[in-house]
Design brief:
This protein has 451 residues and is mainly β. It is built from 1 helix and 23 strands. The chain has one domain: Maltoporin, Chain A, CATH 2.40.170. Helix content is 4%, strand content 63%. The two termini are 36 Å apart.
């Protein structure tokens, strides 16, 4: 599967972009960074904290191709970390991203993307796409220095057949592999290798300027190497929208999830038997269109999980979605919020169905042309509905930094970061403090290879 993703992505890029080579611009942006960090809890252990000084060297580069009808972007950032006191943890990490687009016409577009991470850090950062949308969720519960790699890829064909009417078809897939699968973690669970495929289709249609619908359906086939049953997951959603003004309106939505396991007798990572289930999740709320490409929404709903030969679950939830950037002359702020019902099957947190809510705020202020400050705040709530012990996690993150552009190609930044996990009836809590300084060398403008 891994080779298939790489080969398919390379072939699509070469075939579609080759036709626009005569009208394209190819650029290359190299970079290198050196980070010196003090970490007071490298393994995220509450009882036996280990601190260390860590030096990380990361060369990287971006290759971009923009044509009249197609383009692609490739990013690769390997890094090598040196631990002053625990050299057994020295090693490489890799972060690679690829994205391409092709316009068959003004109304029809193909988007292909691939994201790859190889790391051993116990708290891997979340991965976002170019639009700052969450693609890969970091692992809140991992402990120690267990190496793993994960990959996610998708190809989406979309077509617009009216001012606001669109339809799409998408194929997505991914995998997560551990160097030592089956090793027990702090909370008694085990790491499981897995892979998944998800075809999906969707439709947005407005009957009039005030009334419209959104509908989508996805099917996921999930595979695990051992210790857990493979599964089928069906997820459908139908939403009715009614505009009260040109930008603001109300909606009513119904979502249904159906999960079946190949062998329910296989145990889960929590030590309990998997059971087939149905989830019914109606909700109502309001939405606001900030601009033609950005619509945010917030609402309330109620779910009922009907478990075969098990205990049913039910309760209210908040449904929200927003990813908005406000960019002003000297400062900018990005607000990301999301909440609802989700399933964690192939991230580091293989906990099944969850009720969640998250918020992230990223802001930057330019004191002068070369001197700036930034602040990152985040919080996430997870209620694991399939757990027998009513497990809940509360994660908090904060980072504050100051940076200075020494020259047009050199920037230095010093920062403090705080991570905290409050876990209820599950894994152990932890706190982590990090202080670090990073020197980054990169040209202020991409190098043009040819026009």
């Amino acid at each position: 599967m891994k080779k298939w993703f790489a080969r398919a992505f390379a072939c699509i890029v070469l075939v579609l972009v080759a036709g626009t080579a005569a009208h394209a611009q190819l650029t290359f942006t190299p970079r290198v960074s050196v980070t010196e960090e003090y970490n007071d809890n490298i393994n995220l252990d509450r009882r036996n904290k280990m601190d260390d000084w860590i030096t990380t060297v990361s060369p990287g580069a971006t290759l971009e191709w923009y044509g009249q009808a197609a383009g692609f972007r490739l990013d690769y950032d390997p890094a090598y970390s040196f631990y002053a006191d625990h050299d057994e943890y020295d090693g490489w990490s890799h972060n690679a991203r690829g994205a391409m687009w092709y316009n068959f016409s003004r109304a029809t577009r193909l988007d292909v993307s691939n994201y790859f991470i190889y790391t051993k850090q116990p708290l891997s950062d979340d991965t976002f796409d170019s639009g700052e949308n969450l693609v890969i969720q970091g692992n809140n519960r991992s402990r120690g220095q267990e190496k793993y790699y994960t990959n996610q890829a998708s190809a989406r064909l979309s077509h617009q057949f009216g001012p606001e009417n669109t339809v799409y078809a998408q194929m997505a897939g991914g995998f997560t592999n551990y160097d030592d699968p089956g090793d027990a973690t702090t909370d008694g669970t085990t790491n499981e290798d897995g892979q998944w495929f998800t075809p999906s289709v969707g439709l947005t249609y407005w009957f009039s300027t005030r009334n419209g619908i959104e509908s989508d359906f996805s099917y996921t086939r999930g595979f695990y190497e051992e210790g857990r049953s493979d599964f089928n997951n069906y997820d459908g959603r139908l939403r009715f929208n009614h505009r009260l003004t040109q930008q603001t309106g109300v909606y009513g939505q119904y979502r249904q999830i159906y999960r079946t396991w190949d062998d329910p007798s296989d145990t889960t990572v929590n030590g309990t038997e998997e059971q087939d289930y149905l989830v019914y999740a109606p909700s109502v709320g309001v939405f606001h269109q900030f601009d033609p490409t950005m619509t945010g929404s917030i609402g309330v709903g109620y779910f009922y999980q009907q478990v075969k030969d098990g205990n049913d679950q039910k309760g209210p939830f908040i449904s929200s979605e927003l990813n908005k950037l406000w960019d002003f002359q000297r400062w900018s702020i990005r607000l990301r919020t999301a909440s609802g019902i989700d399933s964690q099957d192939f991230s580091g947190d293989q906990q099944g169905l969850e009720r969640f809510a998250l918020v992230d705020v990223v802001t930057r202020y330019d004191f002068t042309r070369d001197f700036f400050g930034d602040l990152i705040l985040g919080a996430r709530y997870s209620d694991y509905l399939d757990s027998e012990d009513d497990e809940k996690d509360y994660r908090y993150t904060a980072e504050v930094g100051l940076g200075y552009n020494i020259t047009r190609w050199a920037t230095i930044r010093v920062a403090y970061a705080f991570n905290k996990l409050d876990a209820v009836n599950s894994t152990e809590d932890y706190e982590q403090n990090r202080v670090f300084a990073t020197l980054t060398l990169s040209p202020s403008q991409p190098w043009r290879i040819f026009d």
